[in-house]
Amino acid sequence: MRAFADLLDRLSLTASRNTKLALMVGYLAETPDPDRGWALAALTGELSFDAAKPAFIRKAAEARMDPQLFRWSYDYVGDLAETVALVWEAKPGANREPQLSEVIDALTSASRSEVQRLIETWLDALDPTARWALLKLMTGGLRVGVSARLAKQALAQLGGVEVAEIEEVWHGLSAPYGDLFAWLEGRSDRPSAVSPGRFRPVMLAQAIDEAVDFPRLDPAAYVAEWKWDGIRIQAVNEGGVRRLYSRTGDDISKTFPDMVEALDFEGVIDGELLVVRDGALASFGDLQQRLNRKTVDAKLIQTYPAAIRAYDLLAEGAEDLRHLPFLERRERLEALVARLGSGRIDLSPLQPFETWEGLADLRSDPPEGDAQLAEGVMLKRADSIYEAGRPKGPWFKWKRDPHLIDAVLMYAQRGHGKRSSFYSDYTFGVWTTDALGQRSLTPVGKAYFGFTDEELKQIDKFVRDNTVERFGPVRSVRAEPHFGLVLEVAFEGLQRSTRHKSGVAMRFPRVHRLRWDKSPGEADELTTLQRMLD
Amino acid sequence: MDELRPGELWITHGREEALTRWSQLHGVEARALALVGYEDEDAE
Amino acid sequence: MIRPEALLRPTPAGLYCPPGDFYIDPVRPVDRAVITHGHADHARAGHGTVLATPQTLAIMAERYGADFTGVEQAGAYGEAVVRDGVEVTLVPAGHVLGSAQAVVRWQGLTCVVSGDYKRRRDPTCPGFEPVPCDVFITEATFGLPVFRHPPAEQEIARLLRSVAQFPDRTHLVGAYALGKAQRVIALLREAGWDRPIFVHGALERLNRLYEAHGVALGPLAPATSTTKGDFASEIVIAPPSALQDRWSRRFADPVTAFASGWMRVRARPARGAASCR
Q1: Where are the domains of chain B?
Q2: Is C144 contained in some domain?
Q3: Which of A177, A178, A186 is nearest to A158 (CA)?
Q4: Is there a contact between C180 and C260 (Cβ–Cβ < 8 Å)?
Q5: Which of A178, A323, A408, B34 counts the most CB atoms within 10 A of its CB?
Q6: Domain A206-399 is in which class?
């Protein structure tokens, strides 16, 4: 338990991804089975215990101390596991610290009343950090800033293999992963990936470099289709197991039960999850209403009906198609979608073109209908096999040019982690004119990337030299018609918003260029943005 | 406090309610003075 | 017996002793002050007379200049000083160099004004001495039971483990200029860290003062960019405010730690922006 607690503690106190990786690799290399396997399961969110309820923990704490003092402490700390870990008064005694695997065994097999008794003996035996780790483990949600993906990267580093290889076998494995570690340490063969309903690592496209790539690519070797603006998913129905995965392999089936129900095929489809209403594609904003929801109700499903637009077929029945050329897979996909005849799963249509110029025209001026909402086009070599990762050459994405506006820097806020000594989060505004002809700036968005390190230093200096007021970590800066900093802001789309004073909300805004050459008075008007809405 | 067992406990500043509560529970008479001008931490 | 309120009472300027006509740690300038320790909110300049330990007087002179008070009156630990019939004894509080509890005795009544104190061991000052009393006067900054600080030696061991695990990075420790910084340094020495420790300029004067009062801190060097490359594998100590400012940019991929009582509570990140250990 001590090593696991130490790991969680240090993970929770660092924001650096590389440090987290190093900490995890170190732990996995040094900790014996089965403890490290259970730790891995905890980090990847694969553990949950019905017998351990937060109410038990609270009750146990209140039995040991004054409930009023406990309540004040809880109010102050704001997190139950942490409060109890800090206030627990251990009874001096000879309790032995439990092993992580011992805790897991007990939590999975013991009755509720036994668990309640065990909690107390464990808390008595552990130090505050280990108490915190134990309680986090029991209540679920470690919140130490480690995604399942990052944990898999640590495994890949440990074994000197590609992450895709880990992902390929992952869904066939279960905690405490003895066979996985045996493979990664060269003590046995790779575990079997055959597990119905598992995730297949996704193939991704490179961004095209127009100047370099087009001259050397043969348009006849590629096919094109729209790059739809939803979320990339993998829909699996295998041996009765239905799953919907995000492109990183997170199981999102529970968020989209309506979609899972519609997976009436045998195989694995790669596609885009979208909201489609009365046959017409809705904006990304509509899909967002359905993401990251804990509960899904009938009304939500009805208001934002999900659909899949299929790009590719990775398996049909028991047959793996990934080694086949794209066009062969495409034929199989077309036949399957046609057989399905589902209103919820359709094809992403291929877009015929002759020359790169022709494709450029299509991309910049899409026809009426769904294509207007596409993010750009995808190019796929007709003979490309389905290869996990982001291989160079077979697939390209060619996004539509972003919208650009000139805005004025109004507020700056300190960043996090490595950027905590810089003012790196910027609120920018555009001009509005009131009934009396008076011009003033209205904030329209926030951006915290898009600039180089050098530019960050320049903006940071500008902010420090031209601060008007401070509000905690935020500074307002001089933003006057003849003095201030103009930011050229790029963004992907614009939506009406009642939550923003300006009435508009930008999608994916970032700093495109610093316009030291412009005076703020020349920046855009809110009316320019409003016109983009229509 | 357990060791000192003073007749009375006076609390200058900080989490006065918590220490007052503790004193009540331990039968020590407590009084909050609510002095101002001291930092919550020796922040300097 | 007399009522304790006759001996000490709260006023807007601080705790006042009417029979002895003095204030303890007054927050405004007064004629006669007793100062428990050198932290700025307790030890202010501009009083007529200051009674404090010799170390506290030295700290005040270092910070405010030699003319910080009209008259300095040094009271060594355990030595009773009588003012208008009221006896004041300064007794170790274990907080920082020179820190004391003011034990005030009058007509058979004993009040202890503890100032700031701690019970944990601190190699830079004598430990807290409990004094039996009728009234114990204490602050309650860490009055909630969530503040149970782990032994400092354990935290130092964690720091050294991190240094060993991340030899390419600088370990930056945020510690207040008076007390915390020297305690961290002294504990690092006890734990066997004998390399030079790099310190922010704001700590230098007080470090020298500690050494002059017999607290050995070992080899120290200024953490200026010219002294030593990017400080990879080194430990650097600075006031917490400097860690979040431009000053900290000179270090190699820093790992930041705070030597502060608040930091054990991780669900309250507001106190220290990015605390990476």
Answers
A1: 1-44
A2: no
A3: A186
A4: yes
A5: A408
A6: alpha beta
**Enclosing domain of residue C74:** 4-137
Give all chains having 3 or more CB-to-CB distances under 8 Å with chain A. B, C
Name residues whose C-beta falls within 8 Å of residue A386's C-beta, 6 or more positions apart in sequence: A203, A270, A312, A314, A321, A322, A323, A324, A326, A329
**What residues in A contact B22, CB-CB < 8 Å?**
66, 69
Chain C CB within 8 Å of residue B30 CB? no
Distance CA C134, CA C112 (A): 8
Residues of B in contact with A72 (CB under 8 A): 15, 17-18, 21
Domain co-membership, C124 together with C159: no
Query: What is the rounded CA–CA span in Å between residue C64 and residue A489?
Result: 50
**Is position A294 annotated as part of the catalytic site?**
no
Q: Side-chain half-sphere of C18: how many Cα atoms within 13 Å? A: 9
Domain A403-533 has CATH 2.130.10.10: no
Residue that finishes a domain, picked among C109, C137, C165: C137
Asked if A72 is an interface residue toward chain B (Cβ–Cβ < 8 A), one would say: yes
Could you tell me which residues of chain B have a Cβ less than 8 Å from any Cβ in chain A?
A: 15, 17-18, 21-22, 25
Confidence of residue C275 (pLDDT cuts 50, 70, 90): very low
Token reading at C43: 């030890």
Domain count, chain C: 2
Per DSSP, the three-state class of C217 is coil
Domain with C187 in it: what CATH number? Answer: 3.40.50
Parse chain A into domains and list their residue ranges.
Answer: 206-399, 403-533
Cβ neighbours of residue A503 under 8 Å, at least 6 residues apart? Answer: A496, A497, A530
Write the CB contacts of A183 (distance below 8 Å, at least 6 apart in sequence): A159, A189, A190, A191
- Amino acid identity of residue C97, one-letter, is L
From the list A91, A227, A294, A457, the catalytic residue is A227
Query: Tokens 């109010």 belong to which residue?
Result: A75
Cα–Cα distance for residue pair A129/A423, rounded to 1 Å:
33
ipTM over cut 0.90: yes
| C90-141: pLDDT as tens digits | 999 999 999 999 999 999 999 999 999 999 999 999 999 999 999 999 999 8
From A128's Cα to the closest Cα of chain B, the distance in A is: 21
In a domain, C147, yes or no: no
Q: Output the CA–CA distances (angstroms, integers) from residue A159 to A17, A20, C50, in the order listed.
A: 19, 17, 67
Strand partners, A206: A396
pLDDT tens-place string over residues A391-406: 889 999 998 888 899 9
Do C159 and C61 reside in the same domain of the chain?
no
Is there a domain that residue C146 lies in? no
Q: Which residues contact C195 (CB under 8 A, 6 or more apart)?
A: C219, C234, C235
CA–CA distance, C148 with A128 (Å, rounded to integer): 9
